[in-house]
Amino acid sequence: EYDGERNSEGERHGRGKAYLPNGDTYDGEYERGFRSGQGTYRFRNGACYIGEYLQNKKHGRGIFFYPDGSKYEGDWVNDQRHGYGEYTYANGDTYTGEWFNHNRHGQGTYVYKDTGSKYVGGWVNGNQEGEAELIHLNHRFKGKFLNGNPVGHGKYVFDIGCEQHGEYIQSEQVK
């Protein structure tokens, strides 16, 4: 069901509201039959996207509210979180930084709400990887990470002024 403007070919074009068979709704701009421009898409499951579209895909700037209470505000490309954005997780943690193909990728800051600790540095395909700093309330670790764990040379810096330099070595798992 569609209520809105159409072009001379009868395609949805301009502003309109659509009620989809699956229970979702879209209220926004259309171009030649496609969701294009600004719009609000409400999913039957409670999720909601408010932002830009290009040919039926989330593309440009937008905010997505997920059913679990989490939300993403930032750049979208071809229906994927891509570019720069902030994700607030259901538990209150936040990630602010670069995204690539729906994953945290590039440089970003992850803040752990419960402890106040934050990870500032590199990400690869959603995992903490590369040069980074893990900042806690009274000390911080500066070094390299791989799959979310410190690896190789690094140092702890304590607020009282002392430093501890060392190296992380992956222990062999005994089978």
UniProtKB/TrEMBL annotation:
InterPro entries: MORN. GO terms for biological process: axoneme assembly; meiotic cell cycle; spermatid development. This is Radial spoke head 1 homolog. Residues 1-22 are annotated as: Disordered. Pfam families: MORN. Residues 1-13 have a biased composition (Basic and acidic residues). Coiled coil: none annotated. GO terms for cellular component: motile cilium; nucleus. SUPFAM superfamilies: Histone H3 K4-specific methyltransferase SET7/9 N-terminal domain. Functions as part of axonemal radial spoke complexes that play an important part in the motility of sperm and cilia. It comes from Podilymbus podiceps (Pied-billed grebe). It is found in: Cytoplasm, Cytoskeleton, Flagellum axoneme. The keyword Cytoplasm applies. Keywords: Cell projection, Cilium, Cytoplasm, Cytoskeleton, Flagellum, Meiosis, Repeat.
